[in-house]
Design brief:
Layout (H helix, E strand, L loop, with lengths): L2 E3 L9 H5 L10 E3 L7 H6 L5 H12 L7 H11 L10 E4 L5 E4 L9 H19 L3 E6 L3 H10 L5 E8 L5 H8 L6 E6 L3 H13 L1 H7 L1 E2 L6 H18 L14 E6 L4 H11 L4 E7 L4 H8 L1 E3 L20 H8 L4 H14 L1 E3 L2 H10 E5 L2 H15 L5 H12 L7 E6 L7 H6 L8 H4 L9 E3 L5 H24 L1
Helix pairs in contact: 3-4, 3-10, 4-5, 5-6, 5-10, 6-7, 8-20, 10-11, 11-13, 12-15, 16-17
Length: about 475
């Protein structure tokens, strides 16, 4: 298995190279040069596997045994997923009227990011220990990624983690998961801007190949292929649990599963689309909040940013730059790197691109979308509680809104992705007129000391933020040299 850039300038990289990279050197994102196709018999044989074992099976298709032998892969995944609060790691809540919700939020920071992040950090640590090397992780977060990266990597001697979050645009619990972590290898910045603003200086830092190479700089956003790789597993898990593939005749088409995903940076949607290319019959629905660029792209071809990021009750998907759509476009255009390069460079330079109608039609055939207002989020949270006594986080409510607008029909297999626990979004729960008891681990965050640095909004803020982060990254290397000497 080799990897290439979505923009056509890089080919032949192995998993380890890609794991330690952010964007490809040509500005693109890494993808497997070929996507393995699963035989229906393979899917049927996986039907009863526990989730961690399924992660191993899927990962082994993309990570050659020469890099991580099978027995080592099994140990790494088992260790990564051992700290989740339910024995099965993920689980499905089966509610009234065919409402099935895949809960992915039982990790330490109560968000789906913990699934892929813990595994990815274990892979990193595995290679770093073998080579006795160090790396610096640089993460911009819209809410959940930063906390997950911090808690997955805290205390590891070979990794420093530098996280930047948008001050005032995330919930108190999301913020506390980051700023209460005082380990020496964790460094947190609060920026006076949106998550899309944060991405600008980070892209400039990752584009500096000398900095990347000399300081082992890498990303743990879903830019990192390993994050997307692990997310393939929960789509396949949902399919195996809810579609009944073992009941289909050997020569019959496998039944379809509709998967509805709350969407921001589009990493989950990219993973779902890859799974369809692997031969799993999924029908994907991307649900967004008022930051509706993905919805506009699919319905009208308008792939352009709004002037500002709208703050909503679902802050982790308050994103106007859904960067993983680049992976979707690459798959859609059968790996045409030149076309993807032109499209994405125009988008990055002008913040807009209009999809040709033939491309838009192709996209609409593989991806349905919808957009939900804050009022729709609150209405969905209330209704789900009234009918099921089941509490949704506002992001999951963005997806479940689809259930009430497009009622479940007999014979339709459908799954909604629950990306976070409602415990992280107490203000939204209260606005919906609902109450619940916070878990003890969340209440305890209020008693912990905090540590972070501010990135102020200056006239030349992008350059100033870049310089502050560069200074921190370079300083970390000097500190380690002093400590080792």
């Amino acid at each position: 298995m080799k990897y290439c850039s979505t923009r056509g300038g890089v080919r032949g990289w192995d998993f380890r190279d890609v794991l330690f990279s952010g964007y490809a050197p040509d500005g693109g994102m890494f993808m497997p040069e070929s996507v393995p196709v699963l035989h229906p018999d393979t899917l049927r044989s996986w039907r009863g596997l526990p989730y961690p074992r399924l992660v191993v099976e899927v990962s082994s298709l993309f990570i050659p045994a020469q890099l991580i032998p099978r027995q080592d892969l099994e140990v790494l995944v088992a260790e990564a997923l051992s700290g989740f609060s339910v024995p099965e790691v993920v689980r499905i809540a089966r509610l009234k009227e065919g409402l099935s919700i895949l809960e992915l939020f039982h990790g330490e920071t109560l968000a789906f990011k913990d699934l892929a992040m813990t595994c990815t950090v274990r892979f990193l640590d595995y290679f770093l220990r073998k080579k006795k090397h160090r790396a610096t992780v640089l993460v911009g977060t819209s809410g959940d990624t930063g906390g997950s990266a911090i808690h997955s990597a805290k205390g590891l001697s070979g990794l420093d983690v530098v996280v930047v979050y948008p001050r005032g645009r995330i919930t108190p619990v999301q913020e506390k998961h980051m700023i209460t972590c005082l380990e020496d290898n964790v460094h947190v910045f609060a920026a006076d801007g949106s998550s899309d603003d944060i991405d600008r200086p980070l892209r400039r830092l990752f584009a500096d190949q000398e900095l990347v190479k000399s300081h082992g700089l890498m990303s743990l956003n879903s830019v990192n292929w390993s994050r997307v790789l692990i997310q393939l597993a929960h789509f396949i898990y949902a399919y195996l649990q809810l579609s009944g593939p073992e009941q289909a005749e050997a020569d019959a088409a496998l039944p379809e599963l509709e998967v509805v995903v709350p969407t921001g940076g589009a990493g989950n949607i990219a993973a779902g689309f890859i799974v369809t290319r692997m031969g799993v019959p999924l029908k994907l629905v991307a649900m967004v909040n008022s930051n509706d660029i993905v919805h506009r792209t699919v319905t009208s071809g308008d792939f352009s940013m709004a002037t500002d990021v709208t703050q909503t009750l679902a802050p982790a998907i308050d994103i106007q730059d859904p960067y993983n759509m680049e992976r979707v476009f690459w798959l859609l255009l059968d790996g045409d790197g030149a076309s993807v390069k032109n499209m994405m460079e125009e988008f990055q330079n002008t913040h807009r691109h209009t999809l040709p109608e033939n491309h838009r039609k192709l996209l609409s055939q593989v991806l349905a979308t919808g957009s939900v207002s804050d009022d729709g989020i609150l209405e969905t949270m209330r209704r789900c509680w009234e009918e099921n006594q089941y509490l949704l986080c506002p992001h999951t409510a963005v997806a479940v809104w689809h259930h009430y607008r497009c009622p479940h029909s007999p014979g339709l297999n459908r799954c909604y992705i629950a990306t976070a626990s409602p415990a992280k979004f107490q203000a939204a729960v209260e606005r919906a007129g609902l109450t619940f008891d916070l878990p003890e681990a969340v209440r305890a965050l209020d008693e912990l000391a905090t540590r972070y640095q501010n990135l102020e909004r200056t006239p030349d803020w992008c350059k100033d933020w870049e310089e502050s982060l560069r200074e921190k990254i370079c300083g970390l290397v000097q500190e380690k040299h002093r400590d080792s000497s």
